[in-house]
């Protein structure tokens, strides 16, 4: 429809393909046309239409109109202003065309483009469009960032050939040229393309070369590609696996075989001939029974049984006789039945030569029952032999079980080395075996432990003669690595059936007796008795309880006063540990301290004693007017521990006790274990300001030389010198006088331990002894009785009786 309008917007001329649809000329105003427009579009258009009229400018709108049946149609309206030659505005001239079909076509095209873009932008495949000849990227899907590390805009304008591996570019060019030459169909091309990070990514791509169907102009190529790195790796892995299988088949020590339904060999691979040295004539056409070295061997019987049942079998062992070599070889075979159309055709499988394995197993059987170093029976074989020996000896004779442990064998290893140590063990085994009867049992349990078991017709008497004979044989010097070595042993003996009736109990009893022999000074033997068993059980109870004793607060400290013999005033206290066991009651320190040292509990216990004693001493100092000194015993293990200095410093800091009020006591034996290291520790302790005392002086090495190497403040005279009952008092007192005189000449005060009588006290005072402690003054006191004791003693002017 074409129209013109006047100044008032009334149409003055209308030309329409459907004239009956519009009013006559001069009767239709443009404002009325707005009323048939959809309300949504009317709201949008009315201001724009009015603005164009006001400004006398042209306009072009697209909108929907509502038909009489309620449906809508899209129209496109455009108009330009009309002017006279003098510039006077006359109105508008315009045209209205229907655009519904065009609009719907554009909408469908937009939907199609959107769907295509969604597919391309969300596809994991790399979709790209390339310029002809150069291969420049014209379009790249977003998946390029995941596959190649590039954003699409980074690739646009870049030639794909510049990023393809130079060895693979000819493949891509060849595929493009093939299609450009007119060949149809797209082939999969695999090539490497460089990632943004520099490494190459394997892609598998379908390439489609595009041409204008009319002009034949080259439009480039569309490529759809995906990452095939994992596929190629799997493919290459499969190829390597196949190659390995082929190599294995050629090089394997196994062989492949097939038989017919009667069990006769129809095929055998070269492995059998190569390994067994058999010729094909010896194998093909024969059965396993015909080739067997023993037709009654268990493996052959098992094979015939499964063959008859048509079952799969695995690793059946049997031996064959190789006629051409005159040898017997062992095989392990596995196989499965062959069926064709349900009919049994025979077997196929693999076999391997296990001749060396069988021989090795026989050697291992001996190794499993004998010690590899000495050739003696090992622990497991000893158990079997001992069981049989006890069974054979029932109602005939007693059996002695000897548990032998070499004394200080570790020193041989540490000094001479492990190889000479092995030579020594071998010689010990030889001497034991030489001095026993053929039917007697001798075994090595490991390390330096041996067991001997022998029937003893005269019981303990025979056993005693036996152990003395063996000890004598071992005591003869041995020449090891150019050194003359003397071997000593601790031996524990249990008797069957008096001490026990089972091998386990007899070995345990002999072991207990052996430890008792070691405790007695080594190089001795002990017969088991029930008292040892009870003591061992008690020891185990103590050892197990020590694990939780601190946690359960079962320890407490008692304090024994030290008295100045010049003033008879209390100068300090020695802290002594007590253990209140919930079942065993009060356990003496001598019963648990050695176990704590042996099992490694002493460091933690000693740390607690140190902190507790310092705390209690500070509490007493604060409660009384006169400061006292507290003495704490240290073990040899504490002295060797790296934490000792830190522990002492921590105990002083936590308690607030002054360093000069703490005295640490160590035995002289612990000092001489490592004089150089001990001297360094002593110097460090002195640096903290504490006093140092040597406890139990005279009971150890009593080496005067070391006294000058340590910054010692006090010597404590052991109670074994002070409190000697029923002995020559005059001789002992001369020793004490000499000891005190020596200490004073060295500038060291002396504290006497174990003072129990007034006579002893009077003697010590006449000798010039400086301090003393013992039950004469007071028994060790619980912590809550210390302050009252000090008050009582102070009020009685030093009277202790």
Describe the structure in your own words.
It is a single chain. With 801 residues, this protein is an alpha+beta fold. 41% of the residues lie in helices and 27% in strands. The chain has 28 helices and 32 strands. An eight-stranded mixed beta barrel has the order 23-24-26-27-28-29-30-31, surrounded by four helices. Helix 18 crosses helix 19 and helix 20 packs parallel to helix 22 (644-655). The mean pLDDT is 86.
Task: Give short descriptive properties of this protein.
single chain; about 800 residues; alpha+beta; 8-stranded mixed beta barrel; 5-stranded antiparallel β-sheet
Fraction of residues in H or I helices: 40-55%
N→C terminal distance: 143 Å
Structural class: alpha+beta
SS summary, helix count: 28
Gross morphology is flat
Mean pLDDT over the residues: 86
Number of DSSP strand runs = 32
Beta-strand portion reads 25-35%
The value of Rg in angstroms is 54 Å
Q: Characterize the biggest β-sheet.
A: 8 strands, mixed, barrel
Q: Name the poorly predicted regions.
A: none
For the largest sheet, list the strands in their spatial order.
23-24-26-27-28-29-30-31
Short description:
By secondary structure, the chain is α+β, with helices and mostly antiparallel strands. The protein is built from 28 helices and 32 strands. It is flat.
Q: What is the topology?
A:
Layout: E1 2-5, E2 11-15, H1 30-34, H2 39-55, E3 59-66, E4 72-83, E5 89-98, H3 100-122, E6 126-130, E7 137-140, H4 144-148, H5 152-155, H6 169-180, E8 188-194, E9 200-211, E10 218-227, H7 229-251, E11 254-259, E12 265-268, H8 270-276, H9 280-283, H10 288-291, H11 298-309, E13 313-322, E14 327-340, E15 343-353, H12 355-369, H13 379-393, E16 398-406, H14 409-416, H15 418-434, E17 441-446, E18 449-456, H16 460-475, E19 478-480, E20 483-485, E21 489-496, H17 503-519, E22 525-527, H18 530-549, E23 555-564, E24 570-581, E25 585-587, H19 589-599, H20 602-623, E26 629-633, H21 636-639, H22 644-655, E27 662-667, H23 668-672, H24 675-688, E28 691-697, E29 714-717, H25 719-722, H26 729-745, E30 750-752, H27 758-766, E31 771-772, E32 781-782, H28 786-795
Parallel strand pairs: 21-22, 24-26, 26-27, 27-28, 28-29, 29-30, 30-31
Antiparallel strand pairs: 1-2, 1-5, 3-4, 4-5, 6-7, 6-10, 8-9, 9-10, 11-12, 11-15, 13-14, 14-15, 16-18, 16-21, 17-18, 19-20, 23-24, 23-31, 23-32, 24-25
Helix pairs in contact: 14-15, 18-19, 20-22
């Amino acid at each position: 429809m074409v129209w013109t309008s006047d100044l008032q917007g009334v149409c003055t001329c209308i030309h329409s393909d459907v004239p009956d649809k519009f009013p006559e000329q001069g009767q239709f105003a443009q404002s009325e046309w707005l009323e048939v427009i959809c309300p949504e579009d009317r709201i949008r258009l009315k201001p724009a239409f009015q603005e164009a009229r006001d400004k006398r400018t042209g306009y072009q709108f697209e909108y929907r109109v509502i038909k009489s049946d309620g449906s809508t149609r899209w129209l496109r309206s455009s108009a330009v202003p009309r002017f006279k030659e003098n510039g006077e505005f006359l109105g508008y001239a315009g045209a209205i065309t229907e655009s519904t079909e065009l609009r719907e076509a554009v909408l469908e095209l937009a939907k199609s483009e959107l769907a295509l873009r969604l597919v391309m932008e969300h596809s994991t495949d790399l979709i790209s469009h390339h310029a002809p000849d150069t291969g420049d990227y014209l379009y790249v899907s977003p998946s390029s960032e995941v596959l190649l590390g590039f954003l699409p805009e980074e690739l646009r304008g870049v030639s794909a050939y510049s990023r393809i591996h130079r060895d693979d570019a000819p493949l891509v060019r060849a595929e493009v040229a093939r299609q450009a030459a007119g060949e149809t169909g797209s082939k999969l091309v695999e090539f490497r393309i460089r990632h943004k990070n520099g490494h190459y990514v394997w892609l598998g791509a379908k390439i489609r070369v595009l041409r204008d169907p009319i002009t034949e102009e080259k439009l480039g190529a569309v490529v759809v590609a995906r990452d095939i790195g994992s596929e190629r790796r799997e493919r290459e892995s499969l190829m390597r696996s196949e190659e390995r299988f082929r190599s294995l088949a050629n090089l394997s020590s196994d062989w492949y075989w097939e038989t017919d339904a009667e069990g006769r060999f129809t095929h055998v691979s070269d492995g059998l001939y190569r390994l067994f040295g058999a010729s094909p004539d010896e194998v093909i056409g024969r059965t396993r029974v015909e080739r067997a070295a023993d037709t009654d061997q268990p493996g052959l019987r098992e094979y015939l049984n499964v063959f008859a049942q048509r079952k799969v079998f695995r690793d059946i062992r049997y031996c064959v006789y190789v006629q051409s070599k005159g040898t017997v070889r062992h095989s392990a075979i596995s196989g499965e039945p062959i069926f064709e159309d349900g009919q049994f055709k025979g077997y196929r499988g693999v076999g391997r030569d296990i001749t060396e394995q069988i021989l090795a197993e026989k050697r291992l059987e001996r190794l499993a029952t004998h010690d590899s170093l000495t050739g003696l029976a090992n622990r497991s074989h000893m158990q079997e032999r001992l069981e049989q020996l006890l069974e054979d000896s029932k109602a005939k004779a007693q059996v002695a079980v000897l548990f032998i442990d070499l004394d200080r064998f570790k020193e041989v290893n540490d000094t001479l080395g492990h190889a000479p140590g092995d030579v020594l063990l071998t010689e010990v085994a030889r001497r034991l075996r030489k001095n026993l009867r053929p039917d007697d049992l001798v075994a090595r349990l490991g390390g330096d432990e041996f067991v001997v078991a022998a029937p003893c017709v005269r019981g303990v008497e025979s056993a005693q003669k036996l152990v003395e004979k063996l000890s004598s044989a071992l005591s003869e010097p041995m020449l090891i690595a150019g050194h003359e070595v003397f071997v000593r042993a601790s031996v524990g003996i249990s008797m069957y059936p008096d001490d026990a009736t089972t091998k386990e109990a007899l070995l345990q009893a002999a072991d207990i007796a052996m430890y008792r022999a070691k405790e007695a000074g080594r190089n001795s033997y002990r017969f088991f008795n029930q008292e040892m068993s009870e003591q061992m059980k008690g020891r185990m109870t103590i050892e197990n309880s020590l694990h939780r004793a601190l946690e359960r607060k079962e320890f407490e400290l008692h304090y024994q006063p030290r008295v100045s013999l010049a003033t008879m005033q209390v100068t300090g206290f020695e802290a002594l540990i007590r253990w209140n066991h919930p079942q065993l009651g009060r356990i003496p320190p001598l019963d648990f301290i050695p176990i704590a040292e042996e099992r490694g509990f002493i460091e933690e216990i000693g740390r607690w004693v140190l902190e507790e004693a310092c705390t209690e001493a500070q509490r007493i100092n604060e409660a009384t007017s006169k400061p006292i000194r507290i003495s704490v015993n240290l073990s040899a293990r504490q002295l060797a521990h790296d934490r000792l200095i830190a522990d002492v410093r921590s105990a002083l800091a936590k308690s607030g006790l002054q360093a000069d009020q703490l005295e640490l006591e160590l035995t002289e034996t612990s000092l001489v274990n490592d004089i150089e290291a001990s001297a360094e520790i002593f110097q460090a302790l002195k640096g903290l300001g504490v006093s140092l005392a040597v406890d139990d002086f005279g009971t150890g090495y009593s080496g005067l030389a070391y006294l000058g190497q340590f910054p010692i403040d006090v010597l404590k005279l052991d109670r074994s010198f002070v409190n000697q009952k029923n002995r020559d008092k005059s001789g002992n007192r001369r020793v004490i006088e000499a000891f005190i005189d020596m200490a004073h000449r060295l500038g060291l005060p002396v504290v006497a331990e174990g003072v129990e009588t007034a006579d002893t006290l009077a003697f010590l005072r006449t000798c010039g002894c400086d301090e003393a402690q013992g039950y004469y003054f007071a028994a060790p006191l619980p912590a809550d009785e210390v302050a009252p004791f000090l008050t009582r003693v102070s009020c009685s002017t030093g009277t202790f009786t």
